[in-house]
């Protein structure tokens, strides 16, 4: 595997993960500091299934996704009933919890030393395919009624409920969806690295995902994708500066957050309508149709 | 609609002995009234009389401590707001509760959550059925917006609209849910007389066109006079009087409560 | 054994209380969860450690320098990140992210400087212990407890007897109204961050003496966050009790069960607690702000 392929695999695994964070934080307004723990769940589940039971690649990935989703349902059921601040706290607790479980259960996870001997199967095209699928699913979700339910829940939970949105179930769906995405990314990561250790998935890592989502633009799926790619590449480039890279990286992000808090892309989305706008034609959803403009009822 | 019919016809919505206490304050105290199918009922009373609390109870935002709310023969008190929405009750808010960051069209489509009848997996895969339902919903939303004079601003941000249009948008959002019962909380507040006149016409018109039953809270008395078939007057959480405009207007208690005691 | 653990728990808990109170002060005024508090803890830890280690300052002087340094750093953070966002009327979630970044930044910086090593104080000044009625009592535990009590007394004095304290209390009831009453909000916010930073500095430097000096010590902020939640977010007295409770819970699970599952147990207890009493133990319901 070439150096570049390794870099790109890292980058696109992050793209997959931040799609989940975008669902949670950008669309639904839930701040999770335990997202890395879902990545860990997926990674370890896939890794364990692969090393202990010699499960094939795809089956192991599926096991990772399923494990993550199941855990998210168990964790989400109580914690999503809490107020939003308390939910963030619960996710931190979950992050710590997973870390200590991974550390303690030495027999299954390898404990603090880590899980080793996972076959190196992941190639760039696997990750690209997974990233593409994730992005497509998240986009579809955003455009469907559940996506709108998320946004209305974030904006005004009482009003959303009055329009028939079950806010709790909506949050559960999103939480599980995001966990599934994280689990998939975790599985790919496991088969890329070949080893896993608990400290790869701490709370600071979850915080970093959040920062990546904010960097590109909290409310823009395009922004989140491009922002993540940019930051992940930046991180790779800064590898040359060795230990200082985290410092530089955080400084750059901080400057951006202060001077452009809504993220580089704000709410802008890449769309056909935008492309058409560039070429001077207008079509696509969101453009008001001629002819239905006025039925003569109320002139504003 | 005379009082004869009220006595005989079965109620579409019945509020029976409802009580709600906030801390030491009895916001609603043993309130009972009935609304017939197709009626427009005015709910009036001085500020703090508990009118909005009644709306909150009917729409499930607030859980009553005691009493029943019966919609079309079914007890609905204590259900969650989204369950009540599914039974066909929609409402507007006194303080505007728009999704301010979204466009006007998106606001309406978000409110149309229950109208988009497809499941999670279908939505995720964006099957042709989903696209069809979505474009139908978008079209219906646009039509509805145009009908209320908001067609031109469909792509504007909801928060950027002038106040009057935001109030209209609230009504459009309630209507897109295809309710059977519509609760309007002070729809005329902040509107000028001309806009208020248009609102009167609009309330009648949506009742007929969408086959609605409407309860409206309002302080603008001439709107109440012109639209209400029946009026319920509240004061300090209790029902002070009810009846037709002419009956209520002459009621001594009501006059005293509005003009002050002497 | 039991009494030693009890004292240990109370003294660690008292440090958590200090951290939690600082965390709560900022939350009260601005309604923001301020994770840069963790950075201030770490700054406090390292400043005092460096002063002792490299400059050979006596420990008390080092502690004073560390506390002041953390206070100033906290004020500086507010000035550099929060104020520009606040001036432009941005939502508080952006500060939340900025504060997380500051937290990560300082942790990264300290990892870089310390090369990821875990260090401990060279002198035995505070690390010894004495015997009292047959009980071995570590000196640091007593010092921590005394300093915590003194700091809380000072804080109470500042909050209830001084002009800035009055302004801070007014602002935590209603920031907008306080502004309309002619209170200089920039000044109040800066003052609050200064106080929070001072408390973080005290907690950070003493916890560094007790445990060890390492770059991730800022993670203690999560414990402060938990303590606030237990006591009811936004409630200062609640934060103190919350801190003590967490300290005790942690010490006892470590001592009697296992140090590696201690966090998991602590947090499970907390989540169950929050489910049963979302308003925290103290019972004051505060408005949801984030």
Could you explain the architecture of this structure?
- The complex is a heterotrimer of chains A (300), B (262) and C (290).
- Chain A is mostly helical and 300 residues long.
- In chain A, helix 2 packs parallel to helix 4 and helix 2 packs across helix 9.
- The longest helix of chain A is centred in the middle third of the chain and has 27 residues.
- Chain B starts with a helix and ends with a helix.
- With 290 residues, chain C is mostly helical.
- Chain C is built from eleven helices and two strands; from the N terminus they run H-H-H-H-E-E-H-H-H-H-H-H-H.
- Chains in contact: A-B, A-C.
- At the A-B interface, helix 6, helix 7 and helix 8 of A face helix 3, helix 4, helix 5, helix 6 and helix 7 of B.
Strand content of chain C: under 5%
Oligomer: heterotrimer
Write down the secondary-structure element order of chain A: HHHHHHHHHHHHH
Strand content of chain A: under 5%
Identify the overall geometry of chain A.
Answer: globular
What is the tally of beta strands of chain A?
Answer: 0
User: Any idea of the CATH class of the largest domain in chain A?
Assistant: Mainly Alpha
Query: Radius of gyration of chain A, rounded?
Result: 20 Å
Report the biggest beta sheet of chain A as strand number plus sense, adding barrel if it closes: none
Number of domains of chain C: 1
pLDDT averaged over residues of chain A: 84
Number of helices of chain C: 11
Determine the N-to-C terminus distance of chain A.
Answer: 64 Å
Biggest chain pair contact, residues each?
Answer: A-B, 40 and 57 residues
CATH-assigned fold name of the largest domain in chain A:
ABC transporter involved in vitamin B12 uptake, BtuC
Cα-atom radius of gyration of chain C:
19 Å
Biggest sheet: strand arrangement of chain C: 1-2
- The helix/strand order of chain C is HHHHEEHHHHHHH
């Amino acid at each position: 595997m070439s150096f570049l392929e390794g870099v790109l695999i890292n980058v696109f695994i992050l793209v997959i993960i931040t799609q989940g964070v975008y669902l949670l934080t950008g669309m639904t307004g839930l701040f999770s500091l335990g997202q890395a723990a879902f990545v860990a769940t997926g990674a370890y589940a896939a890794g364990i299934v692969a090393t202990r039971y010699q499960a094939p690649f795809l089956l192991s990935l599926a096991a990772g996704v399923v494990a993550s989703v199941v855990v998210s349902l168990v964790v989400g059921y109580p914690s999503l009933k809490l107020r939003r601040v308390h939910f963030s706290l619960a996710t931190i607790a979950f992050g710590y919890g997973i870390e200590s479980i991974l550390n303690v259960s030495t027999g299954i996870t390898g404990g603090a030393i880590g899980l080793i001997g996972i076959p190196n199967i992941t190639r760039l095209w696997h990750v690209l395919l997974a990233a593409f699928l994730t992005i497509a699913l998240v986009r579809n979700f955003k455009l469907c009624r559940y996506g709108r339910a998320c946004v209305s829940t974030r904006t005004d939970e009482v009003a959303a409920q009055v329009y028939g949105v079950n806010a709790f179930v909506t949050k559960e769906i999103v939480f599980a969806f995001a966990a599934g995405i994280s689990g998939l990314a975790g599985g790919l990561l496991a088969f890329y690295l070949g080893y896993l250790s608990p400290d790869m998935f701490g709370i600071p890592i979850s915080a970093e995902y959040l920062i990546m989502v904010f960097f590109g633009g909290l409310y823009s799926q395009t922004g989140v994708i491009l922002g993540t790619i940019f930051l992940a590449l930046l991180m790779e480039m800064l590898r040359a500066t060795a230990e200082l890279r985290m410092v530089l990286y955080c400084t750059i992000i901080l400057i951006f957050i202060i001077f452009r808090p809504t993220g580089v892309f704000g709410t802008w989305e890449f769309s056909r309508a935008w492309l058409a706008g560039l070429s001077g034609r207008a079509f696509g959803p969101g453009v008001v149709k001629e002819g239905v403009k006025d039925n003569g009822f109320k002139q504003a | 609609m005379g009082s004869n019919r009220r006595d005989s016809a079965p109620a579409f919505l019945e509020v029976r002995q409802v009580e709600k206490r906030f801390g030491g304050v009895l916001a609603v105290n043993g309130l009972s009234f009935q609304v017939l199918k197709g009626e427009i009922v005015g709910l009036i009373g001085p500020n703090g009389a508990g009118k909005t609390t009644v709306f909150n109870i009917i729409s499930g935002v607030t859980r009553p401590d005691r009493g029943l709310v019966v919609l079309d023969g079914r007890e609905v008190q204590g259900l969650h707001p989204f369950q009540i929405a599914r039974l066909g009750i929609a409402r507007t808010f006194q303080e505007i509760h728009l999704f301010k960051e979204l466009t006007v069209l998106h606001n309406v489509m978000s409110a149309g959550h229950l109208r988009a009848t497809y499941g999670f997996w279908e939505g995720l895969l964006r099957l042709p059925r989903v696209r069809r339902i979505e474009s139908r919903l978008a079209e219906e939303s646009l039509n509805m917006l145009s009908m209320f004079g908001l067609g031109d601003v469909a792509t504007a941000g909801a928060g950027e609209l002038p106040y009057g249009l935001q109030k209209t948008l609230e009504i459009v959002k309630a209507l897109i849910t295809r309710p059977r019962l519509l609760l309007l909380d002070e729809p005329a507040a902040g509107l000028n007389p001309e806009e208020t006149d248009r609102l009167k016409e609009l309330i009648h018109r949506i009742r007929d066109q969408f086959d609605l039953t409407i309860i409206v809270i309002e302080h603008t008395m001439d709107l109440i006079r012109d639209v209400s078939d029946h009026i319920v007057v509240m004061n300090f959480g209790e029902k002070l009087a009810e009846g037709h405009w002419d009956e209520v207007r002459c009621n001594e208690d009501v006059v005293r409560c509005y003009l002050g005691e002497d | 054994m039991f009494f030693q653990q009890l004292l240990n728990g109370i003294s660690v808990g008292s440090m958590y209380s200090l951290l939690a109170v600082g965390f709560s002060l900022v939350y009260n005024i601005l309604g923001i969860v301020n994770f840069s508090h963790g950075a201030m803890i770490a700054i406090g830890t390292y400043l005092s450690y460096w002063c002792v280690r490299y400059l050979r300052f006596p420990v008390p002087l080092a502690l004073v320098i560390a506390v002041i340094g953390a206070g100033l750093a906290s004020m500086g953070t507010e000035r550099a990140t929060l104020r520009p966002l606040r001036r432009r009327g941005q939502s508080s979630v952006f500060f939340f992210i900025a504060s997380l970044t500051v937290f990560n930044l300082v942790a990264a910086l300290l990892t870089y400087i310390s090369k990821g090593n875990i260090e401990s104080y060279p002198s035995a000044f505070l690390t010894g212990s004495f015997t009292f009625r047959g009980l071995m009592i570590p000196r640091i535990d007593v010092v921590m407890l005394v300093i915590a009590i003194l700091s809380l007394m000072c804080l109470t004095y500042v909050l209830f007897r001084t002009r800035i304290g009055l302004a801070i209390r007014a602002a935590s009831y209603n920031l907008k109204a306080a502004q309309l009453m002619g209170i200089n909000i920039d000044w109040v916010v800066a003052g609050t961050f200064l106080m929070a930073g001072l408390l973080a500095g005290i907690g950070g430097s003493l916890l560094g003496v007790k445990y060890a000096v390492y770059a991730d010590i800022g993670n203690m902020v999560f414990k402060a966050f938990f303590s606030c939640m237990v006591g009811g977010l936004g409630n200062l007295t609640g934060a103190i009790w919350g801190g003590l409770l967490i300290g005790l819970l942690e010490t006892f699970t470590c001592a009697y069960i296992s140090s590696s599952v201690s966090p998991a147990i602590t947090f499970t207890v907390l989540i169950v607690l929050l489910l049963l009493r979302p308003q925290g133990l103290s019972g004051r319901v505060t408005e949801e702000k984030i």
